[in-house]
Amino acid sequence: MRKALFSFVFVSAFAAQALYQHLYGPVASATGLTPAPSGAISNTGVTNATLPTAAPPSPVITGGSDEGRGEGSSDSENEGGSVSAPAPVAIPAPAPAPTPAPKPVGQYADGTFVGTVADAYYGLIQVETIISGGKIVDVRFLQYPNDRSTSREINSQAMPYLKQEAITAQNASVNIISGATDSSIAFRESLASALAKAKV
What we know:
This protein has helices at about 1-25, 65-80, 150-170, 180-200; strands at about 110-115, 120, 125-130, 135-145. It is of the alpha+beta class. Strands 1, 2, 3 and 4 form a four-stranded antiparallel beta sheet that branches. Strand 2 and strand 3 form a beta hairpin. The chain starts with a helix and ends with a helix. About 20% of the residues are buried.
């Protein structure tokens, strides 16, 4: 009876082990149960599923604003790979053109010009004219009728007027002075020849 009971317990234990292996896999080792395959149901009823590995957190940059980081980035770029602008090439200035000699402002060339001798009936009249800046600035009498007292008196009064008239008019077309008609005509003739030499 006792032997039969022992046999029944042994057979029951063997059947239980076989059933356990069929349901849960190989028998657990001495240190514990062997890990169940992926997707198997554990003793606790929770599926032993493989969880996805979480990605490492992104580093957080602190201690500066975007503007500060932008400046630092710009500085590092300038230090590492900046290219200096080429130095400007000096272009020599063109040589100034030679200044032409100034032309006379007026209608006459500068200098002193002597007129021809003209007959004034009671004597001869000859004048010279001085041109400066292209203009008549003076008229001088080189000779005039002066052998008689009347001629000296008339011409001494007429000559200053004739001279001033020529400077004002800038030509030989002076007015005839009453009482000194012959001297006025001779003056115009001599002065006209002097100005003809001074014409530009």
